């Protein structure tokens, strides 16, 4: 079976945009309204010769009531099923209370967690990304899922963790 990379994070941080960027297609549904994702959950992906399964835990956002619950459920599923976890935070917003809850869940896992600081569309966003060191999950990788910035460096690290 292929290794599984799970993508965890609040609604609207850019999980589906990141999925589309990684798979190089527009298959995941990108929504401007938080919490209404209808994406499928798994996709096949490849980076630098490594095939893997990409799991968008936002695909369950409509299944439960309450943002905290659904994001926590995504984190639990990821910790159980994935070989590595990408935790996506919106660097332009910073870490929210929900992000802190997810951080606490993810700190329980021994699986590799890669902290993705998304929406860093230009160099001026690097400082906001660096502020996410405070989550205590290691180095934040600044990316723009929308424009592709930083995605290669992120995937090098993430795939090496599989
Ligand atoms: P999800 O709910 O986490 O799956 O988030 P989506 O992928 O649906 O994206 C939510 C919104 O954020 C959409 O309007 C996206 O276009 C926008 N978005 C996603 N990634 C980026 C990014 O890197 N930069 C900017 N500026 N916007 C982004
Ligand atoms: Mg989504």
UniProtKB/TrEMBL annotation:
Entry's family note: Belongs to the TRAFAC class TrmE-Era-EngA-EngB-Septin-like GTPase superfamily. EngA (Der) GTPase family.
Species of origin: Demequina lutea
Residue stretches making up the EngA-type G domain: 3-162
Assembly and oligomerization: Associates with the 50S ribosomal subunit.
Gene expressing this chain: der
Signal peptide: none
Function, as annotated: GTPase that plays an essential role in the late steps of ribosome biogenesis.
Amino-acid positions noted as binding GTP 1 in the UniProt annotation, renumbered to this chain: 9-16, 56-60, 118-121
Protein's name according to its UniProt entry: GTPase Der
């Amino acid at each position: 079976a292929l290794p599984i990379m799970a993508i965890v994070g609040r609604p609207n941080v850019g999980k589906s945009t990141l999925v589309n960027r990684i798979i190089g297609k527009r298959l995941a549904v990108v929504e401007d309204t938080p919490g209404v994702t209808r994406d499928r959950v798994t996709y096949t992906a490849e980076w630098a010769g490594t095939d893997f399964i990409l799991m968008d835990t936002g695909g369950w956002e409509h299944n439960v009531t309450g943002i905290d619950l659904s994001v926590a459920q995504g984190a639990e599923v990821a910790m159980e099923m994935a070989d590595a976890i990408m935790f996506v935070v919106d660097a332009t917003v910073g870490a929210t209370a929900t992000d802190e809850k997810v951080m606490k869940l993810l700190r329980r896992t021994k699986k590799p967690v890669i902290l993705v600081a998304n929406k860093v569309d230009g160099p001026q966003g690097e400082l906001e990304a660096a502020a996410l060191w405070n989550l205590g999950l290691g180095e934040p990788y600044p990316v723009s899922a929308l424009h592709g910035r930083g995605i290669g460096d992120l995937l090098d690290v993430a795939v090496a963790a599989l």
